[in-house]
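Reopening this one. Same input as before:
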Amino acid sequence: MSTAIAAPVDRLLYKPEEAAKALAIGRSTVYELMAGGTLKYIKLGRARRIRRADLEAYVESLTPLSN
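Same output, byte for byte:
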């Protein structure tokens, strides 16, 4: 009997903690970015969720440092 390994689900919405992990930054930094309007989010009841497209837009907005 073989065990099938499920492919990871391509998420559309992330919890702030999950977004922090995806961005490799701290959870509190994600909350600061959300509070400052730098990282867009939606509210579902009391919960905050970040759309994948908004995570990608945030990363694209970052400018690399030149030496």
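So the earlier flakiness isn't reproducible anymore. For the record, The mean pLDDT is 91.
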